[in-house]
Amino acid sequence: MKRIYLSGAMTGYPDLNFPAFNAAAKALRAKGLDVANPAEIEPTGEKTWANCMKADIKALCDCCTVALLPGWESSKGANIEARLAIQLGMRVVEFETLIAEVA
């Protein structure tokens, strides 16, 4: 397991759900893992949904595992990320499963 990409819902959440993303990144990093956290990715230009997704997908492509945060199923962006990762042959796993594996 090399670099892990966090995927989850942001739109419609307070603070774009950054607290959940940051907590997940912190937990994985505490286990010594390298994490790509969309909450830390700055898109080019205006912070539109499309620009954020473009920047996030670039980061996702540098990873080998996608960890899905709780509630990801209701997110258009997280569904796109999960489907893309599967098509690229990446491992896609629920965050809780991943954190239990590295415990």
Write a structural description.
The chain has 103 residues and is an alpha/beta fold. The chain is built from four helices and four strands; from the N terminus they run E-H-E-H-E-H-E-H. It has a four-stranded parallel beta sheet with strand order 2-1-3-4, with helices on both faces.
Largest sheet: 4 strands, parallel
Mean pLDDT across every amino acid position: 95
Q: Give the uncertain stretches in residue-range form.
A: none
Q: What is the C-alpha radius of gyration, as a whole number of Å?
A: 13 Å
H-E order: EHEHEHEH
The number of helical runs is 4
Give a count of the beta strands, DSSP E runs of length 2 or more.
4
Strand content: 15-25%
Helical/strand content category: alpha/beta
Shape annotation: globular
Order of strands in the sheet with the most strands? 2-1-3-4
Helix fraction bin: 40-55%
N→C terminal distance:
14 Å
Question: Nutshell version of this structure?
Answer:
It is built from four helices and four strands.
Relevant terms:
single chain, about 100 residues, alpha/beta, 4 helices
Topology:
Elements: E1 3-7, H1 18-30, E2 34-36, H2 49-60, E3 65-68, H3 76-87, E4 91-94, H4 95-101
Parallel strand pairs: 1-2, 1-3, 3-4
